[in-house]
Amino acid sequence: MKILVTGGAGFIGSNFIHYLFKKHSDYEIINLDSLTYCGNLENLKTIEDNPNYEFIKGDICDSGLVDQVVKDVDAIVHFAAESHVDRSILNATPFVRTNVLGTTNLLDAAQKHKKRFHYISTDEVFGSLGSQGYFKENSHYDPHSPYSASKAAGDHLVRAYFHTHRLPITITNCSNNYGPYQFPEKLIPLFVTNLLEKKKVPLYGEGLNVRDWLYVEDHCQAIDLVLHQGKIGETYCVGGNEEKTNLEITHKILEILGLGTEMIERVPDRKGHDQRYAIDASKIKKELGWEPEHKFEEALLKTVKWYQNNEEWWQRIKNKEYLNYYQKQYQEKK
Ligand code: NAD
Ligand code: TYD
To answer: Residues 92, 151: contact at Cβ < 8 Å?
Structure first.
């Protein structure tokens, strides 16, 4: 099978490519990635000489290129996106460009060449939960940030191509991922790498917002299952069933690194900060037999160790561009 992975130089995409080669060593993989600030070919160093792997530097908004690449593959697994909520608050335009127009471009090519299409989406399209309840496949759409609104537009377009053109699609909406190769602007890698540098960690507001944490390898396994066994036209919610407040996560990381709470710096809350995300993953469990294999405590420990052992990887990133836009603005305001 020949698979086009878009955004394969990013966090989840690169983990997925490693996963695919481990699981299906005979597969051919093309990685189409424009290498934005968070695309990093170092994530794929160990497989770059694999004859079954090809990297193409290119933009999913480039319709000529996308058409050419899509023509020769059996399936598309679409990860490429602008993915960081804080950046979308400062400038929504790149989010609309890549997440909406880029996705439409891929759908057009998939439709023209009649290819299998899997779209990686997020639980954030469903908005925010109170203290009760879970997101499910039939939860109503209520995206709150420009990021989640652009991802929701992607979900709707993907389904529209199924209904209108009978394009063989599936969608997964997953919760917050963590693990190796995550760009250190997201909560866990930012906090771990800051602490390894003996810098404080910027906790938004009271730190009581809840996310449902999913180890990236468990997510990759779910995508692989849906790609091969998912029912065409269907959506599957994928979550780790590991709800934690940001404060709990911060305390756990501090404990692993033997540091105290004086390393926490309370900073103003994110604008429109969603309170809680939590997924009911019973559909993918029941229909496809998926189960997350990693428990949060041990997978967090493994993740922290990975950042400890791969300091060169994140130092290079942080030296190039360390402060995320939101923090930078906050510090400029101070
Ligand atoms: P990431 O930001 O680490 O990587 C995104 C990749 O897409 C990068 O390699 C980047 O260079 C590439 N890219 C961006 N714009 C592009 C364009 N126009 N053309 C080609 N390539 C482009 O993101 P991630 O965390 O790996 O997320 C992957 C997907 O999973 C995204 O669609 C995201 O919305 C979704 N998702 C992520 C999470 C999470 O916790 N990280 C949770 C739910 C859903
Ligand atoms: P993030 O990793 O950006 O993922 P998302 O917003 O897509 O869920 O943030 C996870 C949680 O951590 C979210 O509630 C915001 C919070 N957070 C902080 O408290 N400080 C930070 O510096 C960052 C990046 C996030």
So the answer is: no
Q: Classify residue 42 by burial, with Cβ atoms within 10 Å: 0-12, 13-18, 19+.
A: middle
Q: What values do phi and psi take at 163, rounded to 5?
A: -70, -40
Phi, psi of 227 (to 5 degrees): -60, -40
Residue 215 annotated among the catalytic residues of the structure:
no
CATH top class, domain 2-178+213-238: alpha beta
- The rounded Å distance from CA 278 to ligand 2 centre is 15
Which tens digit of pLDDT belongs to each residue from 262-273?
999 999 999 999
Report the C-alpha gap between 252 and 274 in whole angstroms.
Answer: 22
Is 334 or 180 the better-scoring residue by pLDDT? 180
For residue 119, the cross-strand partners are 78, 171
Instruction: Decide whether any atom of ligand 2 lies within 6 Å of the 204 Cβ.
Output: yes
Ligand 2 centroid vs 70 CA: distance in angstroms? 34
Coil/strand/helix, residue 170: strand
Question: How many whole angstroms separate alpha carbon 97 and alpha carbon 82?
Answer: 9
Reported as a pLDDT band with limits 50, 70 and 90, residue 322 is very low
Tokens of 312: 């060169």
- The answer to whether residue 147 is catalytic is yes
**What DSSP string runs through 261-321?**
GGGEEEEPPPTT---B--B--HHHHHHH-------HHHHHHHHHHHHHHTHHHHHHHHHHS
Beta-carbon count within 10 A of 210 CB: 18
- Kindly report the protein residue whose alpha carbon is nearest to atom 14 of ligand 2: 209
CA distances, 326 to each of 74, 204, 322, 331 (Å): 40, 11, 11, 9
- Using one digit for the tens of pLDDT, what is the confidence trace for 235-257? 999 999 999 999 999 999 999 99
